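An example makes the point: we let one protein speak, the chain in one-letter code, the fold tokenised, and here it is:
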Amino acid sequence: MLIGRPGNGNSSRGRKLVALCLILALIPACQWSPAQLYIPLAYAVTGMCVALLMSPTYTAAAVGLVVGCLLGAAVYNNSLKRQIQERQRGEPRPPN
């Protein structure tokens, strides 16, 4: 192993710097909308509340939060896919 070698921390610091620069360079290309955050968050909170009603433990809260968030992400992804398909067909989109 390379534990205790001098100079090992510098390469780690360099890798972190390169990773940070790549992330900062790619951020402007990301398209973000509030629905990407709020829909999964709402499902996550709802899932956590339902899980806590069934079993009031920290484990149930964590599982409900994760499962709800995954379900919310799937719902958002499905609505996004439907919007893309409607645009490809040329159908007018319903107003938001």
Remarks:
- The chain has a mean pLDDT of 79.
- The CA atoms of residues 40 and 70 lie 7 Å apart.
